[in-house]
Amino acid sequence: MVLIEQLLSKQEVALYRQHLDQVPWLDGKGTAMGMAADVKDNGQADASHDTVRQLANTLLAKFGETAQLVSSVLPHKIFPPCFNRYSKGETYGFHVDAAIMRMPNSADVLRSDMSMTLFLSEPDEYEGGELVIQTEFGEQRIKPKAGDAVTYPSSSLHQVTPVTSGVRIAAITWMQSMVQDPHVRELLYELDQNIQQLLANDAVPREQLDSLHHVYHNLIRKHSVI
Ligand code: NI
């Protein structure tokens, strides 16, 4: 699980929110598969609407430029983000995300390795509405600032607790990683973070960085399936 702080700036969040105020919203059950539909009670911006499609594409490009996201997930495919909204009383009970998803308007499919929620509401705009993720270290409850995103394994049980007042707006997506094994992915992320720190240090000899880059890229070469 990785918290990506300020993936969107406050100004960017405000812009998305302005646009989302003006698009049609549908019942979120329509896009839930199988058992998830039974526990899903929220609204979803109409993905076939032009403005929504543009917002999703802009956000998709932003994801690709977010170094921390690219480094931690090593995405091969990213599902066009969906925008959802929880008003008073709405919730999404415990579920796991579908393993295989068909990419919109395409014959291509995506295996969901990592899910991501990007928060577009400030935590003081709503009560409840926490993202709760069951991990091997117990339950994680997440309610970060608007513009922050959190990634978590799509295979984990997770829920959005009922919103008891206000409105919670977020974007969600699913990603297929080039590296399916989460432990290998974690090690690669740690290695890359260390390389980035060394890069910022002028005292580190160039040859040593080259050597670490060599190791990093050859590990990706060995472990990636695309
Ligand atoms: Ni989910």
Give a description of the structure.
With 226 residues, the chain is α+β, with helices and mostly antiparallel strands. It folds into two domains: 2-177, Sandwich (Jelly Rolls); 182-223. It contains six helices and 17 strands. It has helices at 10-20, 36-39, 50-65, 67-73, 182-199, 206-223, and strands at residues 2-4, 25-27, 40-41, 43-45, 75-78, 82-86, 91-95, 100-102, 109-111, 114-119, 126-128, 131-135, 138-142, 149-153, 158-160, 163-166, 168-177. Strands 1, 2, 4, 5, 6, 10, 14 and 17 form an eight-stranded antiparallel β-sheet that branches. The chain has a five-stranded antiparallel β-sheet with strand order 3-7-15-12-13. Helix 5 (182-199) packs antiparallel against helix 6. The protein is globular. The mean pLDDT is 95. The structure holds nickel (II) ion. Nickel (II) ion (NI) is lined by residues 95, 97, 115, 158. Nickel (II) ion (NI) binds at residues 95, 97, 115, 158.
